[in-house]
Amino acid sequence: MERFYILFKRNKLAVGSAFILLVMVLAAVFADWISPYAWNDQDVSRRLIPPIFQKGGDVRFLFGTDFLGRDILSYIIHGSKVSLIVGLATVVIGGILGSVLGWIAGYFGGLTDRIIMRIADIQLSFPYILLALALAAVVGPGLWKLILVLGVSSWPVYGRIARGAILSEKEKDYIQSARAIGLSSLRILIDHAIPNTLSPLVVVTTLQVGRMIIAEATLSFLGVGVPASVPTWGGLLNDGRSYLYNAWWIATFPGMAIMMMVLAINIFGDAIRDILDPKTI
How many domains does the chain have? Predict the structure, then answer.
């Protein structure tokens, strides 16, 4: 742990990304206390007020207001909760499902391996967003429905990495020794093989959070993700696309929030990959 901390502190980009993520997480957790207004607080008398730095701006609305008079900053703060919930929950579902199937396929091999990997190949043959879009359209809008769709759609990514890691691990001498003394396959997997395959899975899980946030924003933008009664960055982007010429801030600020969060997550994930892989140090 001390080595991890020392190496991480040396990477200034990683420290900066971690700070940005911390700020966004705290904003999401305490959104009800720090946002200036409720996200759905509407007042048409204050509609389309520009940001504070533009002529006509109002100090009460730092990022301006939308066509319904809602405060953009408050909407973005509350929307960060949905993005983080979707990003974290989907990688948990997809990561657990994919890792378990990958470990089983790689360790036992044979027909089990072929069946699981052919299912993964079939799913990977479809573009991810199109597959998620089709499934979301079938199950209907809803936060937890969207999380389930994105989680199930993403399992092959984890499955392939877990399978490759376990294939390499099961041929090592300590696994052969464990078999020789009569340990069961389940105990070998849980106690010995699986703990030594977690490093690449931790890295891909971190990077997948950003991908899931983009996927959620895409589906919400298209109107098949989270319902309109829930604040999302993708939903605000969709609202603002009709006002790009006369109210550019409606779509620009949630787009910048998505970019900052995903970029910070990717830099953070790259730093973890470099630290966990001694060959890249």
Answer: 1
